[in-house]
Design a protein that fits this description.
- This protein has one domain.
- The chain has a 3-stranded parallel β-sheet with strand order 1-2-3.
- By secondary structure, it is α/β, with parallel strands linked by helices.
- The chain is globular, with a radius of gyration of 16 Å.
- It starts with a strand and ends with a helix.
- The protein is built from 5 helices and 3 strands, in the order E-H-H-H-E-E-H-H.
Length: about 110
């Protein structure tokens, strides 16, 4: 799943975006609160292997709050994210596997 988490985006919007990608956003979804929806996401994702890309992070995202199980060898799940901030990398617990993208030169980027 690819979820854009731009500056100022709320956890509720991230939960809704994940729910939409998982096909959970029906009438009942919109009647429940964020916490109930994040629990539904968690219950579904804990039974699956998944890859989640959180694009354009500006601050730490609490995975538990948005219903995403923490990746482990046992569950085979992967989470990647993009950010411009090394501080966010540290807040998200990245201590290795950090890939810093280099800017394209003008000719390659145009």
């Amino acid at each position: 799943m690819w979820i854009v988490v731009s500056q100022g985006l709320s956890s509720g919007k991230v939960i809704d975006d994940i729910g939409e990608k998982l096909g959970l956003c029906g009438e009942e979804w919109h009647r429940r609160n964020e916490r109930e929806n994040s629990v539904q996401i968690y219950n579904l994702l804990k039974t699956r292997r998944f890859v989640l890309l959180l694009d354009d992070l500006w601050k730490k995202v609490n995975l538990s709050e948005i219903g995403v199980p923490h990746p482990s060898r046992e569950n085979g799940c992967k989470i990647a994210f993009t950010t411009r901030s090394l501080d966010v990398c540290g807040q998200m617990g990245v201590d290795r596997k950090l890939v810093e993208a280099q800017r394209l030169n003008w000719n390659w980027g145009y």
